[in-house]
Amino acid sequence: MTKPLKTQRRLAAEILKCGETRVWFDPEALDEIEKATTREEIKKLIHERKIWKYPIEGVSHVRANIRAEQRRKGRRRGPGKRKGSKLARMGGKKFLWMIRIRAIRKMLDKLREYEIITRGVHEKLRKKAKAGAFRSKRHVVMYVLEHELNIAPIELLEMPEEIRMKYEEYTKTRGIPSELKRAFLAAIKFCEFANYAKESKEEEKMKKIIEWIPKKRLEIFSNLIEVLANYRIIRVDMKEVLMDYAKKVDDVKDLLEYSKEKNIAVTPLELLHLPKEIVMIYEEYVKNPGWEQEILTKLQRNLEKFMKKASEEEKNNASRVLEWVKNELKKFVT
Fold first, then answer.
1. Domains of the chain: total
2. What is each CA distance from 147 to 140, 142, 161, 207, 296, in whole angstroms?
3. Among the four residues 26, 69, 275, 322, which has the most C-beta atoms within 10 Å?
4. Does 179 lie in the same domain as 124?
5. Is there a domain that residue 78 lies in?
6. What is the CA radius of gyration of the chain?
7. Is the same domain home to 131 and 233?
8. Cα torsion through 75, 81, 86, 91, rounded to 10
9. φ, ψ for residue 11 (rounded to 5)?
10. Are residues 186 and 107 part of one domain?
11. Whole-angstrom Cα distance, residue 213 to residue 184?
């Protein structure tokens, strides 16, 4: 090539989106390329394959892919291929510690989440884990059982998936911001879990759990009754009567029906079936003496707004609560 053809090379590089050194000119078409001074003419020559770009030079990865595939099968890992100690090849002491401590902490969190251990025990065991007291997840479970730190059967961790999902629904009620709604939903979800557990075919695995359920159910019912009394939904003087009845029933709906029949409920129990936003306004009404009229007016406004978009069942519940709110407001007028 006698002439550098700088202009043509620059234009071709811009069109081909590469460097000028990668542009190739056909030696037999140099005269034609020399006459091409516009982008359109250069594009035509590129289309005719008289100008093109060299491919990027690189190292083939085919052989590396073959080796990686063989290593995945377990080959090329014998004594002749090993360099460094077993610990070094596994990532070092710190890496092994990270794997172990994360697994142990996850197990401790699961024990706390499933209410097998209390919050205080959970904190103590986390500190022990940090100090290196546990070798593995199994060691954690063994320690809990040996020192009788569990308040629920450890078999809760090994439940069949279908029943475990029901139990997890119950444990998630702690995340609800309203105390009243939380206590009510916890009772409902636990009763659902109890029914599923009773129907389980894996009797040997579920035996201890089924024996533990009545005790836990009574604890949850007692908590619900305590909360209902604190929020003036049921009569405080009838709290003990309702607690005695709670020992005989398996379902929270039966407990609420009984409180209706015996006129233990002061505020409509339909309030519990309403969204948590409305329940939280009611909690505000109980906790703020002196502001009852303003908060009841706010509750009335929210109930009326909710009824416009609610289903038939929700409307019935809301209408009973709304009627109670109006009666309470009349007391302030008189």
1. 3
2. 11, 9, 28, 22, 51
3. 322
4. no
5. no
6. 37
7. no
8. -80
9. -65, -40
10. no
11. 17
Locate 23 and state its tokens.
């542009």
The distance in angstroms from the start CA to the end CA of the chain is 110
- DSSP annotation of 20 reads G
Whether residue 328 sits in one domain with residue 179: yes
Nearest Cα neighbor of 184 from 266, 230, 253, 248 is: 253
- Residue 334: the pLDDT is 58
State CA 313 to chain mean position distance: 30
State the Cα–Cα distance between residues 324 and 169, nearest whole angstrom: 32
Please list the rounded mean pLDDT of every run of 10 residues in the chain (334 residues).
Answer: 76 94 93 92 94 90 96 94 90 93 97 94 97 96 95 91 91 88 92 88 82 92 92 88 90 89 87 89 87 88 87 86 88 70
Per-position DSSP letters for 22-88, written without gaps between them:
GEEE-GGGHHHHHH--SHHHHHHHHHTTSEEEPPPP----HHHHHHHHHHHTT-S-SGGG--S-HHH
